[in-house]
Amino acid sequence: MQLKNDLLLRVIKGEEVERTPVWLMRQAGRILPEYRAVRDSVSGFIELAKTPELAAEVTIQPVDILGVDAAIIFSDILVIPEAMGLPYEMVEKRGPWFPNTVRSESDIKKIHIPDVKDSLSYVLEAIKITKKGLNGRVPLIGFAGAPWTIFAYMVEGSGSKTFSKARAMLYQEPVLAHSLLEMITIATVKYLKAQVEAGANLVQLFDSWAGILPPDHYREFSLKYIDTICNAITEVPVTVFAKGAFFARREMGELNCDVVGLDWNMDISESRELVGNRKVFQGNLDPAALYGSEDSIKAATSRMMASFGGARHIANLGHGLYPDLDPGKVKLFIDLVKSYPR
Amino acid sequence: MQLKNDLLLRVIKGEEVERTPVWLMRQAGRILPEYRAVRDSVSGFIELAKTPELAAEVTIQPVDILGVDAAIIFSDILVIPEAMGLPYEMVEKRGPWFPNTVRSESDIKKIHIPDVKDSLSYVLEAIKITKKGLNGRVPLIGFAGAPWTIFAYMVEGSGSKTFSKARAMLYQEPVLAHSLLEMITIATVKYLKAQVEAGANLVQLFDSWAGILPPDHYREFSLKYIDTICNAITEVPVTVFAKGAFFARREMGELNCDVVGLDWNMDISESRELVGNRKVFQGNLDPAALYGSEDSIKAATSRMMASFGGARHIANLGHGLYPDLDPGKVKLFIDLVKSYPR
User: Fold this and answer.
1) What is the per-residue pLDDT across B62-110, written as a single tens digit (0 to 9) for each?
2) Counting Cβ atoms within 10 Å, is residue B172 exposed (0-12), middle (13-18) or buried (19+)?
3) Is residue A272 part of a domain?
4) Would you call A148 an interface residue with chain B, using a CB distance cutoff of 8 Å?
């Protein structure tokens, strides 16, 4: 189906476009009362993500309500560990928690590379329903966690300030770590390809915990697997967002990907110098800027837009929306980007 | 009193020294069974910090047990908010929690710049007892939180992944934020000067939450106040450790301080290029490296020592010790640094 708004895809192709496209990480989520109403109709986040009709509904909400230039499928990066045999719970205010973890060779033997069309059929189904509902209005983004970030949760068993158990394994059992990372990578490639087959127009890898590794470990235990995934996904554009990986920007420029996400710590012109000119940038307003007054949001948005200089840019935040942001302020940011003079 | 081991101070003066000095952030703490025994004799962390004899005892423990080249007074950065009228509790496994926070002008009116010799006399007393106990064996480091980090806790009321309330204030109420930061800065200068008067041979500023600010906010709301403190402390050398502030390394080189701490994300030669040659570096082994085997710790330590190139370097970790590290492994790291061939 021909897309009515293909601005995002045209920017990625390197075309001159009439304005900068914009979408927001976590745009389908708690900031919208419409999302909270759907979420309250089920037992929680995981049930919502596993009910394709509802996942599709909340995926489309920000397109209708906020006017973003892309939808991103409502799901979670931790569906991959679950499909591999490591189920998790989402604990209110504390985040994900895994009753079992992977710490030894015998733990690895208990997990498997999933048949994603079976165990993750609910995501693929949600993508198909979303595509019908979008009816070509905007592109749909599929996504997965980068292998290091998924590994971090599978070993640690929960979120953590330090992920010290996951990082300990890199020093104690590097061979074991690589075999788990390889399994995750194979599962992720299969999963992203299935998302594309189901209708995703592009895909994004989230390396949320990139920033806790020293540069040499990042290269060995994260970038290597991101590189494998980028090379495997040839069907659609790929975005890599590695939060905190300021030290790997040069290497990001050499990945076989189309878009590099920047967080709000990263200076834009320095990043352009390090990453080079071949990548489209995505980002990078400080999400906290949307707590400010209208004037302050206007100033911050203009500063950001001017720094990116208009070309090869997909506007976004430097991280996901904070759940207590005012949807009116969020919409203001989107409108400001859309009306920003070329 | 003449110090028997003044290696650290001689490195800071720029002298050629016989070997690299070493100490560890959080060296007085849970990794040592001797610390846990003292801690178990009182109600908790805060009582321990407020009992000068015991604080002095645990301060000296790592000098005896681990053989480090400096002691750092056992205390907490949050004694400053408490002295300003904002008491806190330390909740097991969750960290600090403030029953009251500062979010408005009327909240600011309820706090004050403390008479540190009165309200923080327990820290000053602990320093005096420690100095006697050390009897000139090694220098004693005093410390405080950098104003932005203290501000973050006072506004947020606890630790946080995003410190979104504290960061919101920077956008919503920048004038209010600056007046709180100024109060914290004045209190901190008084506090550090009192620590020096009590016997601290050098002082360190910890900007633990530097890494969550965008570069422009970091300059405006953090570096500015660090600069004020560095200019005010003329009596002893000053170390600035701003975790995650990779984007501010050039500015760190221009501060009126002697030592710049590096975290384990920061490439050493790149940091030298950005910071320049006038500062001594402190750091930066990944604390998780100490989970590895002896061979792996040897390799990681050698790599770090070689990268710093021997000169103008105080060996340390890139962050505090993790509480579950094996003290034997920690001591191995210290011994490896001390015997590293020049």
Assistant:
1) 999 999 999 999 999 999 999 999 999 999 888 999 999 999 999 999 9
2) middle
3) yes
4) no
